[in-house]
Design goal:
Elements (H helix, E strand, L loop, with lengths): L4 E5 L3 H23 L2 E5 L3 H10 L9 E5 L1 E3 L9 H8 L11 E2 L7 H15 L2 E6 L22 E4 L9 E4 L1 H4 L2 E9 L3 H8 L15 E6 L1
Parallel strand pairs: 1-10, 2-3, 2-6, 3-5, 6-9, 9-10
Antiparallel strand pairs: 4-8, 7-8
């Protein structure tokens, strides 16, 4: 399946964060009206976190939100480099989403055990309503890195030898991340080369995401 991409540039990272925040709110409203629940996968990174800070100021039917993480570093639960800890501090601890509906990746168990455990959460989630992803300078997304080979049928991957520390991580797979109503990449910073390679359809992890409804790339670079 070929990836269908819509590019949406923004003048500043603040405008980008505001746009992401609004897209999340719109997706939540649509999903809750349709099914009574909103299943959202979070990305790490500067612009997504700015969007989370904006979300923390909003009035929402938080009891119907279900939160997942695209990837996590194999670090202790209280490590400042954990995606889940940042999301908790900037947003999730400040609103009334039930704790049982916030699905942190248990990466502190190690890559294999963490991936095996989180695959159960992903299975139970089924199709997501919105997946947020970032992109690194090398075209990686979540913890799916160039040159790494994974079982394409898996819902989650144990990741070793990450080119960025820590070397061990857990990531939702491209297959599971693509199983979503909406997929939004949030791209900021010095990513011109990776964006150019993406537009030229080079084989990068970001190009492996092929949801039925296509991909929106919101960027400020």
């Amino acid at each position: 399946m070929t990836q269908e991409v819509t590019w949406k540039p923004y003048e500043s990272i603040d405008q980008l964060a505001e746009a992401v925040c609004q897209r999340v709110l719109d997706a939540a409203d649509k999903a809750i009206k349709a099914t009574g629940a909103f299943k959202l996968v979070l990305a790490g990174g500067t612009a997504p976190v700015k969007a989370y800070q904006l979300l923390a100021t909003k009035q929402q039917d938080w009891g119907k939100w279900h939160i997942y993480h695209g990837d996590e570093r194999c670090l202790p639960v209280d490590d400042a480099e954990r995606n889940s800890l940042v999301a908790d501090q900037k947003w999730l601890n400040l609103v009334t989403i039930p704790k049982a509906q916030i699905h942190a990746i248990p990466a502190e168990l190690g890559a294999e055990a963490g991936a095996e455990s989180y695959a159960k959460d992903v299975t139970e989630a089924g199709k997501f309503d919105l997946v947020l992803l970032g992109m690194g300078e090398d075209g990686h997304t979540a913890s799916l890195f160039p040159g790494h080979v994974h079982n394409l049928d898996e819902l989650t991957h144990a990741v070793h030898n990450s080119p960025k520390p820590p070397s061990d991580r857990v990531s939702i797979s491209a297959k599971a991340l693509s199983n979503t109503e909406e997929l939004i990449f949030v791209v900021s910073g010095a990513k011109h080369e990776a964006v150019a390679a993406w537009k030229n359809k080079q084989d990068l992890p970001v190009t492996q995401l092929c949801p039925v409804n296509g991909v929106d790339v919101l960027l400020s670079i």
